[in-house]
Amino acid sequence: QVQLIESGGGLVQAGGPLRLSCAASGRAFTGYVVGWFRQAPGKEREFVAALVWTSGSTYYADSVKGRFTISRDSAKNAVYLQINSLKPEDTAVYYCAADAWTQRVRTGEARYWGQGTQVTVSS
User: Fold this and answer.
1) First to last CA, the chain
2) What backbone phi and psi angles, to 5 degrees, belong to 73?
3) How far is CA 29 from CA 73, 93, 104, in A?
4) 65-88 pLDDT, tens per residue?
5) Residue 88, pLDDT score
6) From the centroid of its chain, how far is CA 60?
7) CA dist 58 to 33, 48, 80, 81, Å?
C-alpha cells in the first residue's frame, strides 16, 4: 500500500514560482510512475506531468510544457512539481498519483492518489 501526501500549495501571485511536493509512505517509489494532475473549479481533472522513477523519463501535457517541471529526490522518496510563471488559470487542486504502469498514470487510472493540495493564483 502506498500513501501519497502532497504539500506546497497555497495562495500565490501571478508570475511567481511554486514547488509542490509529493511524498510517499508505506514503500519507496522505486518501480512506480508518479504523476501530477490538477482539477480546476467546474472542470474535469487533467493530466499535468509524470515521471518514471526508475529511468527518470518524464511526460508533460502540452499545455504546461516549458513552465512545469517534474523531478524526484531519491533520498527523500519524493517527487516535485515546479511551476514557473504562474497564471490565474493554474488555480486548481493538484493531485499526486502513482502506479506501476505509465499508461495508467497518464490516463488518470493510477491506483494510488493523494488528497490534493490547493493552488490559488491571484492576478
Assistant:
1) 40
2) -130, 105
3) 10, 22, 16
4) 999 999 999 999 999 999 999 999
5) 96
6) 10
7) 9, 11, 12, 12
